[in-house]
Amino acid sequence: ANPDGVSEIEVAKPNKTLQLAVVFGFWYFQNIVFNIYNKKVLNIFPFPWLLASFQLFCGSLWMLLLWSFKLQPAPKVSKSFIIALLGPALFHTIGHISACVSFSKVAVSFTHVIKSAEPVFSVVFSSLLGDSYPLPVWLSILPIVFGCSLAAVTEVTFNVGGLWGALISNVGFVFRNIFSKRSLQSFKEVNGLNLYGWITILSFFYLFPVAIFVEGSQWVGGYHKAIETIGKPATFYLWVMLSGVFYHLYNQSSYEALDEISPLTFSVGNTMKRVVVIVATVLVFRNPVRPLNALGSAIAIFGTFLYSQATAKKKDGGEKKS
Ligand code: 3PG
């Protein structure tokens, strides 16, 4: 990590820069594929709890394969490690399922605009827990709040459940980050991807039983309806698979990127990712966007850049994933 907040891209050697560019490229591309196929499935099979569980299941299976074939060194797992992960995994589950519920109710672009407000939640909750932030950080969250509000009131697909889902997702991921920092202090030797792998496995066990309870009774009927709508079952399975595999892949790439860059660069990269995804999904799904909505989204995104710059002056930079 770079404590001065100077982007590693600026100081990296050409080889390293190229390597980083490739990882970022994969991360963005995989995220776009995830967002498109996730929404395609939800459009005809509106059961986000099952789809989110399946995505966590895919990630769990993927990690077990990587570990069994020694493509990734398996971490030493102790009881205390699993206990330390219970909190972060719970909040990861909340963050993921609520984002998926939001995706099922509104345009993907709107969910991502609201998700770009994650720094606001980070600053507010970290302050409540005793952290202090300089004035520029507090000022930087004003355009985020204003931009998101403008985008929300002008959103064509607006839906209260969709807005709440995205907001709760922000709370979930911020608490995941806060809890990871606190409870995983003594497991620093576990690398990011292995940590993410275990969080995914635990999240699956948290989510799936609740998913059965929330919407299980509608799955069979919903499945027949989806197949009727799409005509070809194979296409439906392909979309579901793509959403599951790419959900894991983009997270894996983001952890690979995080190993190489500072939290600050990561947080700027994550915001850029949302811009790319917003544009891509608006084009693919041909969502109508009102001019004021685009303006609000741009102001919110710009606010997250100001936030990154303001937190660069703080010792440990911006957001870091668990
Ligand atoms: C998730 O549930 O993880 C969301 O789908 C996407 O969140 P992210 O864009 O912050 O990774």
Question: Which terms summarize this structure?
Answer:
322 residues; mainly alpha; disordered C terminus; binds 3-phosphoglyceric acid
Please provide a written account of the structure.
The protein has one domain. It has helices spanning 8-11, 14-44, 48-68, 79-105, 108-115, 118-128, 135-153, 160-183, 192-215, 219-230, 233-260, 263-285, 291-312. The protein is an all-alpha fold and 322 residues long. The longest helix has 31 residues, at 14-44. The chain contains 13 helices and no strands. Helix 3 crosses helix 4, helix 3 (48-68) runs antiparallel to helix 9 (192-215) and helix 5 (108-115) packs antiparallel against helix 12. It binds 3-phosphoglyceric acid. The site of 3-phosphoglyceric acid (3PG) has 4 residues, from helix 4. 3-phosphoglyceric acid (3PG) binds at residues 96, 99-100, 115. Its main location: membrane. It comes from Escallonia herrerae.
Q: How confident overall, as mean pLDDT?
A: 90
Bound molecules: 3-phosphoglyceric acid
- Whole-number tally of structural domains: 1
Structural class, judged by helices and strands?
A: mainly alpha
User: From the alpha-carbon coordinates, what is the Rg to the nearest angstrom?
Assistant: 19 Å
Work out the oligomeric state of the chains in this entry: single chain
Structure annotation, total helices: 13
- Count the E strands: 0
Strand content: under 5%
Q: Which consecutive residue ranges, at least 5 long each, have pLDDT under 50?
A: 1-10, 316-320
Using the alpha-carbon principal axes, give the shape.
globular
Written as H for each helix and E for each strand, in order along the chain, the element string is HHHHHHHHHHHHH
The percent of residues in helical segments reads over 70%
Main beta sheet strand tally, sense and closure: none
Measure the end-to-end span. 15 Å
